[in-house]
Write a structure and sequence with these properties.
The protein is 86% helix and 0% strand. By secondary structure, it is mainly α. The protein is globular.
């Protein structure tokens, strides 16, 4: 498996775990639903549903960057939005810079 694939799948799992933790710790259904939808869309980019899967995955991850940045700005707490912002930025960079 290529490095990019490892980064992708690890990120998807961390995204889902983050949403689940948000639900279990804070009762946030929004976190659970948002992470599940984003992860599902990212998985769909891998199974060939979209014609430009790399571009679509990059767009989804860029939108997540914005969402996590907004949440971080509102809460001023690193956990969990700051961590997910950092993980998303690293995953996006690694997917596109390391080939």
């Amino acid at each position: 498996m290529q490095f990019e694939n490892w980064v992708f799948w690890i990120y998807v799992v961390l995204l889902l775990v983050g949403g689940l933790i948000g639900f279990l710790k804070a009762g946030s259904k929004v976190s659970l639903i948002t992470s599940a939808v984003a992860a599902a869309l990212l998985v769909l980019t891998r199974v060939g549903i979209f014609s430009q899967p790399v571009i679509i995955a990059n767009i989804i991850m860029a939108v997540l960057l914005v969402v996590f940045a907004i949440r971080l700005a509102k809460t001023k707490k690193f956990m969990p939005s700051g961590l997910m912002l950092l993980l998303t930025a690293v995953a996006l960079a690694l997917r596109n810079l390391v080939k």
